């Protein structure tokens, strides 16, 4: 049976409703997955009037098992939490921020109960979350809290390239300070376990260098000498298949072509630039280190084009495809 994927609608005022419609209507998505959308019926009906949007029959259900997973149908758990008299497309709104959180929370509830096989998320807006009184800065923090997971891992996948991140939303100065032996050891251990749960058991992980040419043995930067090399040596003693540091100007290309099964990027932009330059729309975020599987588009709410019917659903379709790809191994792990 096709995996059952929960899709929270995202911020109602953004492009989430539009790309959800386009994804659910897509023949390939229908072939590989059963999609249950968690959102607002009124907003989804409104989005069907955007230029070029597909028109689907909306089937409202309380239990995903009641859905009709067939062409032309959008199965929806309707939380009915948007006042259409106040609703404005393309605007920051506390109402929409709160609604977006509710869709995510319900989707996580379904995944925690193993009612759905995975969650594929759409964009939310940090300002709208704040105006709605939601004290989380983004998806990862919400998933961490609602699945009781400490410090979930971010994994990007695009084509054959997988990239983990040693740090995320911190300053570059702080990111450099976070490159420590103990942190690298902890992350490689957890990243290796995360790959195992996704069914990736072969191959070697590479750690990217922090400084140009990995510091040239301390000539310009000593983080590799003091922190990265000792971490790799200790990990290899423990039996982990890991190498590094490998110069960041080459390691991502090498991994793309199969030399490594993944790369541990030492700061946010290092790995983001590599993956998004390769293929921006098909760079998908996987939140690992949790008891449930979550994939996500890696773009924002795009308020500037919301409602115009021009938003691309490529990333959303790819997020569902990866959820389908990894769900069987993840659920059996």
Describe the structure.
The chain is an alpha/beta fold. The chain has helices spanning 16-25, 27-32, 41-47, 94-112, 126-131, 139-146, 172-177, 181-197, 223-237, 251-256, 268-278, 314-332, and strands at 4-8, 34-39, 57-60, 73-78, 118-121, 153-158, 161-165, 205-208, 242-246, 262-265, 284-288, 294-296. The protein has two domains: 4-150 and 288-332, Isopropylmalate Dehydrogenase, CATH 3.40.718.10; 160-275, 3-Layer(aba) Sandwich (Isopropylmalate Dehydrogenase), CATH 3.40.718.10. A twelve-stranded mixed β-sheet has the order 3-4-2-1-5-12-11-6-7-10-8-9, sandwiched between helices. A hairpin with a 5-residue loop joins β11 and β12 (294-296). α8 (181-197) packs across α9 (223-237). The longest helix is centred in the first third of the chain and has 19 residues, at 94-112. The protein is elongated, with a radius of gyration of 20 Å.
Strand ordering within the main sheet: 3-4-2-1-5-12-11-6-7-10-8-9
The biggest beta sheet reads: 12 strands, mixed
Quickly count the domains: 2
**Order of H and E elements:** EHHEHEEHEHHEEHHEHEHEHEEH
How much of the sequence lies in strands comes to: 15-25%
Q: Please provide the count of β strands.
A: 12
The Cα radius of gyration reads 20 Å
CATH architectural group of the largest domain: 3-Layer(aba) Sandwich
Taken from the alpha-carbon principal axes, the silhouette is elongated
Low-confidence stretches: none
The structure class reads alpha/beta
CATH H-level superfamily title of the largest domain: Isopropylmalate Dehydrogenase
